[in-house]
Amino acid sequence: MKATTLNQVVAITFMAIYGHGNLVLASEPNSLDESIHALQAEWARIYYQIPDHELQEDAVDILADQAHVLTAEFPNRAETLIWEGIILSTSASINGGISALGKVKKARSLFEAALEIDDQALQGSAYTSLGSLYYQVPGWPIAFGDNDKAEKLLKKALTINPTGIDPNYFYGDFLVEEGRTDEARSHFQKALSAPDRPGRSLADKGRRQEIKAALEELD
């Protein structure tokens, strides 16, 4: 599929959700929540359900543009900043290349801005996402990776959302990187038994598959 065709598909998806070509309908009181939910749903579809790497690259870049539109419309809402950051981080991971560093730096800035506005937003997701960046990116002089900062942020996320699937998964993944496998197993098991998130069934299913794979690697 050509990128232009994929653009059309994504546009049609958002039009189907809203009945218009715009992500945000300011006249509707729930439009921001609906827009964020649309980003979440499309992110999960791209990340977990598109097997073709080239299509995945194109789709996540289109979604990053959509997220940026929403952030520009609502620059003082932590939720929009968090989701633009998540999508940019995903784009960096999927696409790689020389543009990846710029994307993760931008994502870091978005997460930090979200924390300044409301660190409790989306159950502390900015802490989880920022912490995961700090242990996944290279350290100085290439990038800003810092495992001490990562652990501090991931632990903060767990104080806000101790039973959440994402904070437990990412802290478990961090602990694997640190060689602390017993602790990692405990957090993976907590993540696996985390309650379902309303409207996030696809993301939860995909994350649980990742958790099971991680646990198998520890056995």
From TrEMBL:
Ranges of biased composition (kind: Basic and acidic residues): 197-206
Region (Disordered): 186-206
Superkingdom as given in the UniProt entry: Bacteria
One Pfam family it belongs to: TPR_19
Record InterPro entries: TPR-like_helical_dom_sf
Protein's name according to its UniProt entry: Tetratricopeptide repeat protein
Organism expressing this protein natively: Pseudohongiella nitratireducens
Taxon lineage: Bacteria, Pseudomonadati, Pseudomonadota, Gammaproteobacteria, Pseudomonadales
